[in-house]
Amino acid sequence: MKKDVLITTPLFYSSGDPHIGHAYTLIIGDLIKKYHELVNIKANLLAGVDEHGEKILTKATEVGLTVEEFVEKNSSKFKNLSSTLEISPDYFVRTTNDFHKEYAKKVFKELLELGKIYKSSWSGYKCINCETNYSNKYYSQKNKCELGHELIKKEEDTYFFKITEFVSWLKEHYANKNIIFPARYLKDLHEGFFPSLEDLSITRSKLDWGIKLDDSPEFTLYVWFEALLGYISTDSVREKHWLTSSDTKIIQIIGKEIFRFHSIYYPAILSLKKLKTPDKLLVHGWLLNDNRKISKSDPNSKAIPPLNSLIEQYNLESIKWYFLSLNWEEDHPFSEDLLKQSYNKYLVNLLGNLINRFKGIISKQEYITSSINSEFKNEQIKKEIELSNEFLTKLTDLVINIKIPEIISRAKQLLNSANFLLNHLEPWKLPKDSQDYKEINVFLYRQLILISFLLSPIFTEKKWEEIKNSLSINWERKPENLNFFSEIKNFESVNLNNSTNIFQKYN
Description:
It is a single chain. This protein has 17 helices and 17 strands. The protein is α/β, with parallel strands linked by helices. It folds into two domains: about 5-115 and about 165-195 and about 225-315, Rossmann fold (3-Layer(aba) Sandwich); about 335-495, Isoleucyl-tRNA Synthetase, Domain 1, CATH 1.10.730.10. The protein is elongated, with a radius of gyration of 26 Å. GO terms for molecular function: ATP binding; methionine-tRNA ligase activity.
């Protein structure tokens, strides 16, 4: 049975402008949504911004804005990021919304009443950039945070969340359930995090920008604690997707630097709230510049052009294709040269060139017709049709199991095979009225439409219209149209437009 899907991206920390790393995560989420829709599974995407904390207060002061003006400005930038990428989140959460602040205080009070929160003092080291505390033991082994930022000594009274009580529950929760992908992060939990886990400080003192406790206004909720609640603080989202009675499948997409928060603290909070826990936690690698994570606070990242400049200079297809072609499990370097190489190799030289060559072959006929028998005679073509039909039977399962890169790998194979057969069968040497000539044309036309359909989630509406017009496709990217490929299609006469190159090569 197909379940509706909720896909969440992190609530991006809005201390600066969106960069290519934010776009990477958001594009992954959107592509997963669109591939679910391609196989007729209803999917929703949740995105948003995390707007509290000392770092944001400091940044606002540096640029001469009130903190309210600062977060309003940056929230708009992250909303505009979605629009610029032609992504439409179904839900966009801001942690400065009143309903979120009230919900966060309510959860704190409930956990306090359950005896899962206690007051004590904390001493250790803090990374202002990451809004993360580190123990004295950690500092004795490393004097910088996990991302290489400086740590400063801190000591304060605080409220602690008794996360150490949940280690056994967490081990059982993750046992044999394939929740975490890639699975190697489960090993990190057992060997790295669980043995050294300490109760989590979930308040800060002497902090003016955040959610203050009603009964103890000298305490402000720790930005990470309340940001995690952003996924469930909207009543309609919580009631539709997160109740245990809901059939929604929940997929959370995160970068590996925030794995600890989402794999340990968040499911523990959900269990206390008697809400569903995510069915899948997809942990993607980093985009690297000079072998370091691209981030707002890393001076090396300045070498990467601003995101808006990248999008203006390169079309969205090139950016989305690059991200879709990556193995999401691993870290990957990012550069303009790599972006151009990937786009030129596949979308320009393979797909675009195949469309142009195919149309060049039949341009004198002005149309393609398929007065062929009920099945192909050419054994190579028959084999390719069988392989592509077999792949289509697996498409829904690949999507459900979030194996989107595998779909792209297969689309690349289809492209290579179609180009190979075109070169091998040499239809330009065949009589125009021969059965072999007609078979090749029908096969190529079918494969071009199939490949375009499989890649359609990366295409903007404008690009999809160009492809449709070029190939005279008269239907939309809808799941029922997958049935088109399951049988030999006896085309009516199809007029092909002599449009210009759909994909322009980058120098």
